[in-house]
Amino acid sequence: MLEDRSCLVSRDYPRTCEREGNWTCMNYRLEKLDVQQGKRPLENDEEDPVVTKLPKQSDTQERRSAMALTLGSGSMVPANESNDQRHAGGDNSDSSSLIHAIGRDNSISCLIHCSRSDYGAIASLNSSFRSLVRSGELYRLRRQNGVVEHWVYFSCQLLEWEAFDPSRRRWMRLPTMNPNECFVFSDKESLAVGTELLVFGKEVLSHVIYRYSLLTNTWTSGMRMNAPRCLFGSASLGEIAILAGGCDSQGKILNSAELYNSEMGTWTTLPSMNKPRKMCSAVFMDGKFYVIGGIGGSESKLLTCGEEYDLETRAWTEIPNMSPVRTGAAREVETPATSEAPPLVAVVNNELYAADYADMEVRKYNKANRAWFTVGRLPERAGSMNGWGLAFRACGDKLIVIGGPRAVGEGFIEVNSWAPSEGPPQWNLLGRKQSGSFVYNCAVMGC
């Protein structure tokens, strides 16, 4: 099994794992694994028509590829220890060293450069690999070494979530949520932080948070923040996230904020913002947290200002005119503030961008002049209803737009990407699938 003294490097995720020392990482032959068959907890969706078809694989290769799509180890693990020994090869006397020939430290150095798509298959090798993957240690080390893959998580059905891998252009289904009826019809926000996807909503008498774990491929509930809220702004940076503003269970608009640490599972109350606001947006930029726009004041008017939170000084600073100003067609029709989506903003390479859904334009924020200017067009088929149903997110060094044309009983969801470093917007269609619904929630997990 470990012939050629090779170590684990994904051929689909071409990163080097060279370090100072006398050893070299070579390709580990995962196709030799006798992967267990059976239904996956996280399934491939129908084949995307945009993706170029690959040559026909052998049955073993197909089974390996299927397992590689599993987000976490989930249930895709050997049934007993004898299977562990069979997967690990003839000598399993020291499985704690992972790849015995090169030792544990060097094994992990190689593993962190594998694609996270392969971690399900890696977890099936033996109990030591399985424990390593499910503990989250690999993801912590990936962050420390700057190894990040971004996957897009979105929901077009009330209890159904899907994942999209932009690199391999694969659609995958998460397990179905199982909340009560009240949660189904409540307003929901979503946030990806660390290796978790959090979905916020309301049950009969209180707010509730459902948490999806990448490590176990399961949903759980029961988490509580210090000041439960909805309609807030949020953003994540590695294993931490900040939530600010929103409404409490009585509808009062809040100016409070909290920091969530996904590694510790803790909520910490932060100093309050200068202004209460709901239906706002938030981003991290230049190592600071920003809340942008929203609705506030006694008359519930749109706010054009933003607020900057410095994590070191723990102080908020108000920034005028930071919310993208509506222009053109958006100014011709007066609509209630609550009918419009929160500002569609995203940060790539510490630059702030916004999607103007009314004029179908992409705008960029000039931090020096504190002004917005147009840089190009949105994808032509990115439809929305006053901004609702259109996802505009940062995905690594690219901006992505998820949306599509709607028709009665049918429609499409499209994923388009653009790298701002390459010049004016030229959108690349990554994937398309049939969908009769808008995008209700969307989050990007980078780990």
Provide a concise account of the structure shown.
With 447 residues, this protein is mostly beta strands. It has helices at residues 59-68, 81-88, 103-111, 119-123, 127-135, 137-144, 181-184, 329-332; strands at 43-44, 150-157, 160-165, 170-173, 189-193, 196-202, 207-213, 218-223, 233-237, 240-244, 257-261, 266-270, 281-285, 288-292, 295-296, 301-302, 306-310, 315-319, 345-348, 351-356, 361-366, 371-377, 391-395, 398-403, 406-407, 410-418, 428-434, 441-446.
How would you describe this protein?
Strands 1-4-3-2-28 form a five-stranded antiparallel β-sheet, with no helix packed on it. 40% of the residues are buried. The radius of gyration is 23 Å and the shape is globular. It has helices at residues 59-68, 81-88, 103-111, 119-123, 127-135, 137-144, 181-184, 329-332, and strands at residues 43-44, 150-157, 160-165, 170-173, 189-193, 196-202, 207-213, 218-223, 233-237, 240-244, 257-261, 266-270, 281-285, 288-292, 295-296, 301-302, 306-310, 315-319, 345-348, 351-356, 361-366, 371-377, 391-395, 398-403, 406-407, 410-418, 428-434, 441-446. A hairpin with a 4-residue loop joins strand 20 (351-356) and strand 21 (361-366). The chain has 447 residues and is mainly beta. The protein contains eight helices and 28 strands.
